[in-house]
């Protein structure tokens, strides 16, 4: 670029997106004189999904502002909890976030996910068509213009990912009400109606069951239930919500 020079500051939470020389409290950025502020910020590596207020010379500006020579720009992070107006709070996760998707479903959060890589264009199109917040660690995917809404997942550890998403969006929690396999709603199931789907040991040992209304998968308090209960208890203790339906 060979145009107006501006002075830009990224909030500390956003600096890791930028190359090292742009992580100082203030950095000089030469623009082309026609690109919007949103384009300039993205060119530094920061997805706009992570940007809150933009201050130009101390006054709030929009991403469509074209910065002029000598302007000072402050890029602030998204304010948490983040509100997503215009649709029920639902999510779409990319192929790399399968464990996070299952944990969100465990807590009753509507989290669509495909185990096969359907490609960035299709993910972005689904986000727009279904009005879902796209969760990803792929900055390029989050820059696609057709997204309904998106959020960068900052950690690669499922426990931290879950806390990040719950803390950022504060969705309502209703554990054990959603199928962890397909995201469909669960309903109470009489033991006799699911008997043919159970192994003999399960039929003999357990009495309380739930069934997915979409894929018909059957759930009960099996050997792994204690581990799942620990995930639920941790999330409920920190973020609140309804009690477990199978507890």
UniProtKB/TrEMBL annotation:
InterPro entries named among the record's database cross-references: Mut7-C_RNAse_dom, Ub_Mut7C
Residue ranges the record marks as coiled coil: none
All residue ranges annotated as the Mut7-C RNAse domain in the record: 90-231
Name by which UniProt lists this protein: Mut7-C RNAse domain-containing protein
Limits of the Ubiquitin Mut7-C domain: 4-82
A Pfam cross-reference name: Ub-Mut7C
The organism's place on the tree of life at top rank: Bacteria
């Amino acid at each position: 670029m060979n145009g107006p020079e501006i002075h830009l500051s990224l909030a500390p939470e956003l600096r890791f997106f930028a190359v090292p020389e742009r992580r100082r409290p203030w950095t000089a950025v030469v623009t082309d004189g026609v690109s919007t502020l949103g384009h300039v910020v993205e060119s530094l590596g920061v997805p706009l999904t992570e940007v809150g207020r933009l201050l130009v010379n101390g006054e709030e500006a929009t991403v469509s502002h074209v910065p002029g020579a000598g302007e000072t720009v402050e890029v602030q992070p998204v304010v948490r909890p983040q509100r997503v107006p215009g649709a029920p709070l639902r999510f779409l996760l990319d192929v790399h976030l399968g464990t996070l998707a299952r944990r969100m479903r465990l807590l009753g959060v509507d989290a669509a996910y495909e185990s096969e890589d359907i490609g960035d264009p299709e993910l972005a199109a689904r986000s727009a068509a279904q009005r879902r917040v796209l969760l990803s660690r792929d900055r390029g995917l989050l820059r696609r213009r057709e997204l309904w809404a998106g959020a960068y997942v900052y950690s690669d550890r499922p426990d931290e990912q879950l806390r990040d998403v719950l803390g950022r969006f504060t969705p309502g929690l209703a554990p054990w009400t959603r199928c962890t396999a397909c995201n469909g709603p669960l309903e109470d199931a009489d033991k006799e109606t699911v008997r043919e789907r159970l192994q003999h040991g399960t039929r003999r040992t357990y009495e309380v069951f739930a069934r997915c209304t979409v894929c018909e998968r059957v759930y009960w308090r099996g050997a792994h239930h204690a581990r799942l209960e620990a995930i639920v208890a941790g999330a409920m203790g920190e973020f609140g919500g309804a009690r477990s339906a199978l507890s």
